Amino acid sequence: MTGFLLVAVLVGCVExxxxxADQRRWRLPNxxxxxxxxxxxxxxRLLAHDDERGVIRTIDALGGDGxxxxxxxxxxxxxxxxxxxxxxxxxxxxxTSDGELFDWTPERLERTDLDAGCEVExxxxxxxxxxxxxKQIPKVDERRIRMFFVDLAGPSVEELRxxxxxxxxxxxxxEWDEANLRFYVLAAKPQPRVVVIExxxxxxxxxxxxxxxxxxxxxxxxxxxxxxxxEGKPAMLTFWGVLP
Length: 244
Fold this sequence. Notes:
Elements: E1 23-27, E2 35-40, E3 46-50, E4 55-60, E5 66-72, E6 82-88, E7 91-96, E8 100-104, E9 109-113, E10 119-126, E11 129-136, E12 144-151, E13 156-164, E14 170-177, E15 182-189, E16 193-197, E17 203-207, E18 216-222, E19 225-230, E20 236-240
Antiparallel strand pairs: 1-20, 2-3, 3-4, 4-5, 6-7, 7-8, 8-9, 10-11, 11-12, 12-13, 14-15, 15-16, 16-17, 18-19, 19-20
């Protein structure tokens, strides 16, 4: 379990030029036109889902083969507004915008309703817990990021943390970097960007090229870089070999 401590203080928010180092891009097939979440499993596979059907798809991006497998959450395939995916061991978790958490394994599927008090828009693993991020919080100023921590023994929301920002932001994805002890929060609106929240609670903001990233929805870290997925026709997958 990591000892990451997040304090609700904004420290040194700077927005540099868009990241460009070692960038590669791919068009995704039509099945992922509304791609909404990315994650990497224990075998290094890149997993994705769209935002309307409970199907997890495996992407062989670097191999150039596109979607190579589709894993339905259950039969019949559930419908909903699916907004985030995370992997813990053999468990694959998918969450909807209203906080319905799906725990998928080859043996079973379990559903739990979580109350984070917001519209959910991303999910990541964090030690033995999950962390989600809110896109919108009813009747709350949009100049903040709200993260909620999920105790899987419940499962239930055990903690809320809010990070004040000096601009409006609507997050669309989240990823925990265990090696460097930081969160990456992806945002699509008002401008595409990545907010990097360090262990000491300092915040960096990295701009994404708005011409290339019109609707970034998913973010995932791998050993040699990171991916961002943009929905659209066509949907796009971008890889950088250097972390922001």
